[in-house]
Amino acid sequence: MAASIFAAVPRAPPVAVFKLTADFREDGDSRKVNLGVGAYRTDEGQPWVLPVVKKVEQLIANDNSLNHEYLPILGLPEFRANASRIALGDDSPAIKENRMGSVQSLGGTGALRIGAEFLRRWYNGNNNTATPVYVSAPSWENHNSVFMDAGFKDIRTYHYWDAARRGLDLQGLLNDMENAPESSIFVLHACAHNPTGTDPSPEQWKQIAAVMKRRSLFPFFDSAYQGFASGSLDKDAWAVRYFVSEGFELFCAQSFSKNFGLYNERVGNLTVVGKDADNVQRVLSQMEKIVRTTWSNPPSQGARIVATTLSSPQLFEEWKGNVKTMADRVLLMRSELRSRLEALGTPGTWNHITEQIGMFSFTGLNPKQVEYMIKEKHIYLLASGRINMCGLTTKNVDYVAKSIHEAVTKIQ
User: Is the pTM of this model over 0.90?
Assistant: First the structure.
């Protein structure tokens, strides 16, 4: 029998965070804790369907005017408009001057990919694969892969995390921007930086924007956690809105996985801000061609849920309350974990746990300490030391804190 034509295909390594979840499921220890995968969990450790989402799903199910016809290639118009509105703000100059547009996408990853594909084809000249793309060190692993797979050849990192101080390396970041070639693309986390949970302050964002404007650098924001980070939609969108007010042309990829709990509906949006309406429409015309050969038309259910919620004042207020419920639980778990580590006298400083924001915390644990946590304590976290704060509950936080204390004390 002839060998398979696929015989030379190597097996790709598993995606780390999903491999971690699979290992967790197979673990029979009753003490096990999953601090890996980036999804919200209740204090009972269960997934949460937002009450407002349940309500809107019923409204959609009972609406006899709806059908399953194709959506437009660029997506559901009311979803696109409302998604961009919460990113840019009701009083955004880009909205008032009609110099913004958007594309519904398959989650935040899809928004990044459509943006990256467009930039590779059309940014700063036709089919420019040599433009440097800068990604923070560290960053969400998909950022590098998305731009690489879109065809960019020069993916670089910029300083972000100061391991010694367990905080933002602002000077290193600014230096890298000063030294970057003009027109370089910078991938920026709008809020709740993944994996560190460390964000620039408004004053620091102003410094970043000033350098980027002077050096003609292109901002590509990834906004995966708006509202989820601080509990405030406006606070979490501050950086994006400031850059728009400063006259930047930019892209902003949005995800509604976390703040609507719509993980498996893959609801995303790519907001485009340009100099004028004509520029934006030409950009969207090219993005339409990219979408047509990628997924052709987006799915409707998740987009309808978001659009219905955001366009109704009453549902919108209810949703903001649901989001604040999630954000407040994360903030509580940060406070509880820090207080327990400090009460135990765990070596090192732990103020960064409460100074960081959003779903993730960069604990500072090294790979050997992480290995100890997994093998000896059955607590699953990424090798980088990143933990999902939603995996902590009032029932397991003591065990997790004592385990971290043991790992730090026993293993250097």
Answer: yes
